[in-house]
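Section 3.1 - Work completed
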Amino acid sequence: MESVQNVISNAIAPLDFRRERQIVGTAEYVAFEVLVSKIIRQVLRMENKGIAELAAIHLVSIPFLGGAGAPFGDLQPVAGSDGYVTALKDGAKGVPAVLLAQWVIATAYKGFHLPWFTLKDVLVTAGAKSITRPLIRSVHGFIGGLGQDGVAVMDELVRRQIQQSNLRFS
């Protein structure tokens, strides 16, 4: 029963309207992810996914971030990370979560199916997800107190998911 409550808690935590900083963090996270994904898709002349579809994918990925990324280690805070390489590695830890979210969204549209991703789509997802975290690190000092708090709350949410994940090795 506790694991069922944990799944429900993780699913609704990013949208807990009682926590202003959590909502800001979720909105920032989704906005950055969508922006980077749109830019990369446009530069590479890939399938142009709409903003609403990308936002849904990245919003759905949040509950999976810690659990799916747990085998790759803990997450360093954006503000206190050792540098851009660490931020890039931490960003890449979220790729499985985004792929899971893409499958969930596709299942909602098409019904249950085996996931099918093209190599190009996986590479774009991995690249966009990986470079978003260093980008957030770059602008972190300029986004104001509430924005910085939102990023910190998102980091803490993912760290807690990692700590509670059954996929964690340590």
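Second construct:
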Amino acid sequence: MGLKEQWTKIKENWLMIVLVLLILGAFLVVSKAVDSSFVGKTSSDYGGVFMEKALSGYDGVSYPGDSFAPGVTERKLVKSANLNSEIKQGEFLTAETKLKAIVTSSGAYLLDENVQKYGEEDEVYHAGYYNLKVDTKKYAAVVSQLKEIGTIISFSENTQDVTGSYTNLKVELQAEQERLARYEQMFSEATDVSDKITLNDRIFDEQRTIKYLQERLQNIDTEVEYSSIYVSLQEKPSPYANVEVISFSALVMAFVGSLNGLFELLVVILPYGVAIVIILVVYKVARRKKK
């Protein structure tokens, strides 16, 4: 077929070519409109749910100075543990009773407990958080018994050597006690009233400093003697705990939203549909005239 014949065919079928181009253009516009309706959507727009729980502990004591003391044979060690266990549904109260029995039998102290209840009616489940103090000599045995309650989800231990800090505090305390003794001696030898007043104030300040250092040493001794154990008992929730029956109003809103989307799509397509129908009619009329 020559070039002239091809050109003749194109002129005879120009309406069909225009029709194809219009259909392609309508398809591109509709695709763009649909894509734009999802721009900016996040997981929260579709009812995403996220829950996170964490358990952390703090021993309540800060240790000044350098904790490294290589020349000291008797080390000062502060121990702590974090245990997170999962309990079968409906067995939380039994597990909590076991935990408290371990606390009582070991002579430990339950410093804090916090039990939360989640869900409603038959889908209720519990989570409990407990802060224990136990004699360091019984620490390993108590941890071993606590691990037998439920299924262990996570467990961590921490041992902090505070020997250097403890030694530094003792040295500082001794220096302050010696300073206090000198002030007391100077006070007993002073004859001037103003000197006695000044020395009395300094003695008072030294006594407060010494008391503070003594309390710091006592706190460290307590932390060394009693280890901290942080326990989390979480009852395994029912797989239907977070299932909710959709309300009638939500169904109506979803239906209205779908109708709005359909109307928007029809508004976009309608002009192109009318144009296509007109072109088809013109094409058929032109074909009939040729015949």
